Amino acid sequence: MLEKLIRELNSNADVGKAKVYQRFFKTGKGEYGEGDVFIGLTVPFQRALAKKYVDLDMNDIKKLLESEVHEFRMTGFFILVYKFEKGNCEEIYNFYLNNLKGANNWDLIDCIADKIIGEYLLDKDKSVLYEFAQSDDLWKKRIAIISTFGFIKNNRFEDTLKISEILLNDKHDLIHKAVGWMLREIGKRDLETEERFLRKYHKIMPRTMLRYAIERFEENKRKMYLAS
Hints:
Layout: H1 2-11, H2 15-24, H3 43-52, H4 58-65, H5 70-86, H6 89-97, H7 106-110, H8 113-120, H9 127-133, H10 138-147, H11 149-152, H12 158-166, H13 173-189, H14 191-201, H15 207-213, H16 219-227
């Protein structure tokens, strides 16, 4: 089954798209996605294939996640999400945590982490997210905050706010954007909770983080936060 999936992936490769993706996902020397390989597949196509091959053996999924090809890894992660939705949640959660090496770009995290880690840990101990947030690994830190989207969607904001505090002084733009995004998602559901956090921290948080957090505010309120 794996060989058939790989043939379908490769047969739909698009060299032009691959070049665009390699620039967009910063694969150049010294960039955060340095050395990543793209073959030019769209996300909807990968999702469709993942659903088609949802019964793929776990050992074969592991091979996808270890591939040098970005879209192979993404398809493997999508398969995990669909397996998780079908059941065996603990198995999929543990497998995901044990195979995070391939989750080494923001899209490989943002489409996956909340749907596996966030959903699984909703009513469980969340210490792994705090370990990740305090690590030196960029991608683990992004996984920590993005996973909390699963909690936000259930109107549980405490862990997002605590992890946002931990990441408040992080130096990387990808963390600033992720934290700002999650704060904005809180605001969509409970504006007062978001603004309580912003009133406390907006003067010291990175500007990108703040801009993402206040993106949906009306103009005068945005200006007030940016000016103060």
